Amino acid sequence: MSDALSRRRFLALTGAGAAGLALVACGGSGGPIRITSADPSVAAAEAQRRRPGAAVRDVAVTAGAGAISLAQRMDTTWDYNQTVPGPEIRLTAGEVLRAKITNNLPEATTIHWHGLALRNDMDGVPGVTQKPIPPGGSFVYEFATAAPGTYWFHPHFGTQVDRGLYAPLIIDDPHEPGGYDRELTVVLDDWLPATGPSPGGTLKALKAGGMGSMQMARSPLLGGDAGDVTYPFFLANGRTATDPQVVDVTAGERIRLRLINVGSDTAFRVAVGGHRVTVTHTDGFAVVPTTTDAVLIGMAERYDAIVTIAESGAFPLVALAEGKGNQALVVLRSSPGAANPPADVHPAELDGQVIQAPDLRAAPAVTLASRKPDRTFPVVLQLAPQGYRWSINGRSVDDAADVLTLAEPLDIRRGERIRLVFDNRTTMFHPMHIHGHTFQIVGPGGSAGPRKDTTIVKPQQQVTVDFDADNPGQWLMHCHNLYHMEAGMHGVISYVR
Ligand code: C2O
Ligand code: CU
Question: Which of the ligands is closest to the CA of residue 484?
Answer without folding.
Answer: 2
